[in-house]
Amino acid sequence: MWSRSMEPKEPLSFSRRNLLLLTVMMGTILVPINSTMISIGLTSMAQDLHVSIASIAWLVTIYLLIMASIQPLSGKLNDTWGRKRTFIAGASLFLVASVGCIASDQLLWLIVFRAIQAMGGAVMYPAATALIRVNTSDRGMTHAFGILSLVTGLGAAVGPLLGAALIGLGSWRWLFGVNVPVMLACIALAFVAVPESHGKRTRIDWGGSGLLLGVLLGGVLMLTGEVQVSVYAVIGWTLLVGWFALRQKKTEYPLIPFVFFRKVRFTVGNVSILLSNFVMYATILTLPIFLRQRQDMSLQEIGLLLLVFSISMSVCSWLGSAAATRVGKPALIGLGFGMNIVSSMFYWLILRVWMVQDAWIFSALLIFGGASAGVGIVSMQTMSLESVPREDAGSASGIYSTFRYVGSILSSVAVALFYHQVDVIFFAMASLSAIGALLIVVTQVIEQVGVRSSVVDDKA
């Protein structure tokens, strides 16, 4: 039992830190891989299970919804229960669920085990980032997050290619089978290499987590048309949102502590990742549809172009982490949003106005687009986490991850609604990037005014 934070008694050695980083990377890389590679197998799954594509697509939706709604809860869990223990529990859930997916011969069971798999990923990822936060210095944390961002970005990039290769082995069940040996190795390493640490011991707001899931699920169902949008539906959803907000304000142990958002940099870091992830997912979801339907590109060509985008994003996220200490995190975030505005405009010009069909031009554009998405992403995460005490690292990590996944969900909904009107999507990408850039400018002004005021007070 504990009442105060329990951090590692002494700094980890260089080799121990690297082993810890390897362990958390082995677990967390499977989260984006399983998010993207399943898209390749949806058709095969639908045929094998004799269901429609619309029904099998719930495997994607449920994964994103669970990931978004459970992460604040898992952040609390790893602060209270122990970050190492929570990481191992999440990895074990992911492992068991993957085995369940392999054995499923009905869509219902496949969705159930896919939801459990998402729970495992949602528990594991905040624990991984919190372990890095409490076991590294501020400078080392930025470097470690850069490597983690590089690895997870590459995981998302290779997901579709890995999925195609695994299905080529004969069955979509290999998509889940590949997780088993990696997770077994990850769990074994975690027992040996990861030191235990705790944050503040608090009660867990299980009801709040259920309400958050209801809010996200209700919003998605209405936006996608799965539930008819009526006055009663909107009122019911609004009441649910109000109930969740009131519960978070009144409870002694909130799932999402609103007090964190009094920190300007915490708020900016979280809003920035939501906007940035919207733009990034809109790019990788919209371009394949457009290039396939309008440019008649093959799936292999489109896959290679998206690989170019993801590699550029991953490399630039790592470079951005190295540059953050020199040029400042807000500057890199603002640069990323500015580049996103330019890339969104060029997507529209090249694909809609000029109707360019040169693969080299597409490649150059996607390299720039990937750089736009990656250059500021580590700064967003670091700025968010360093704004709160180390003992709250788990809770802050969970909130950050939720904002990231909400951006992804909103993007997938927008693409589903407007994929016949890509001009609207490109305009939304540019507009949200402009809002992000403006947010950074306002933040810098507020901080400068605060610094000058404190200087005047000191002189007085």
From TrEMBL:
Main location: membrane
Transmembrane among keywords: yes
Localization in the cell: Cell membrane
Entry GO terms, CC: plasma membrane
Keyword list, A-Z: Membrane, Transmembrane, Transmembrane helix, Transport
A single MF term (Gene Ontology): transmembrane transporter activity
CDD domains reported for this sequence: MFS_MMR_MDR_like (cd17321)
Ranges for domain Major facilitator superfamily (MFS) profile: 20-448
PROSITE patterns assigned to the protein according to its UniProt record, in alphabetical order: MFS (PS50850)
Transmembrane segments: 20-43, 49-66, 87-109, 115-132, 144-168, 174-194, 206-223, 229-246, 267-290, 302-320, 332-354, 360-378, 399-419, 425-446
SUPFAM superfamilies reported for this sequence: MFS general substrate transporter
Bilayer topology: Multi-pass membrane protein
PANTHER family reported in the protein's UniProt record: EXPORT PROTEIN (PTHR42718:SF49), MAJOR FACILITATOR SUPERFAMILY MULTIDRUG TRANSPORTER MFSC (PTHR42718)
Protein's name according to its UniProt entry: MFS-type transporter EfpA
Organism: Sulfoacidibacillus ferrooxidans
Taxonomic lineage of the native organism: Bacteria, Bacillati, Bacillota, Bacilli, Bacillales
